[in-house]
Amino acid sequence: MFTPKRIIILAGMAALLVCITPFVVKGVRTDVSSDFPVYNNHGLPDLTIDPKRFVSQMEIIDRLFDDASCEIVEGSIGGTGYRRLLRFDTVLINGGDGDLVVGSPTDSRNPYRKVFVFSPCHNHYHIEGFSNYQLLNLNRAVAAQGHKQAFCLEDLLKYTNDNKSSGYTCAFQGITTGWADWYFKQLSGQWIDITGVPEGDYIVHVQINAAGTFSEGANKYPNVIEATIHVPDPRNKVTIDNSPTATD
Ligand SMILES: [Ca+2]
Ligand SMILES: [Zn+2]
Predict the structure, then answer these.
(1) pTM listed for this prediction
(2) Residue 214 Rama label (left phi>0; alpha psi -120 to 50; beta)
(3) Which ligand is nearest the CA of 169, by number?
(4) Quick check: 143 and 195 in contact, CB under 8 A?
(5) How many whole angstroms from 37 Cα to the centroid of ligand 2?
(6) Which residues, in sequence order, are CB contacts of 39 under 8 Å at separation 6+?
(7) What are the helix and strand counts (H, E) for the chain?
(8) pLDDT of 49-73, one tens digit each?
(9) pLDDT digit string, tens, across residues 128-158
(10) Alpha carbon of 183 to ligand 2 centroid (Å)
């Protein structure tokens, strides 16, 4: 019921209520719900990213990785030692009028079973190639290759007030219509490794359902989100975050 991811989110929400700092997002979880109302998509899901949280949580930090880091295995960092990471929240909203149903990673009858891959960093099954994270120059050339971030899709936030969750978790994955999953920036891989990227202005580019695994019907809500960001000189100090990895 309460997975580590949920507990961290609940703790985070509690912290938001009592602690006002310049870094706290002013928004609440329903901020963008009116921008992405559930519509008649003939029973199909339509996934999109919460654009406000994507921008408001974006930050650049340094983090230390050793030879045993699961991130090396997963390919979310380009090497060991201190890496400079541009990280952000990805909240996946389902604005279609049908659930996204992915099912159990371990059920041999599941038609999606081939898209599941076990994540050593998260210790559960992810959907391979679900999203693509890249840093682009303003002329849209790739400045930092980033990686394909895999996901376990589950219901974590309600985006409308009238739908009950169908109860999707990492063990039986999906997102209910009107609900959202939340990959927050402290999770392993919720970043682009920008180590050595020169100072300048760049575009953070994220695409979801990148491999086209799931049908989204009319697909009215965008699967690509972009934001511009200024990357400081690599010699400049930024915040170091060596706190234990969130692994859900
Ligand atoms: Ca979409
Ligand atoms: Zn995961």
Answers:
(1) 0.86
(2) beta
(3) 2
(4) no
(5) 27
(6) 46, 95, 96, 97, 218, 220
(7) 3, 14
(8) 999 999 999 999 999 999 999 999 9
(9) 989 999 999 999 999 998 988 888 999 999 9
(10) 8
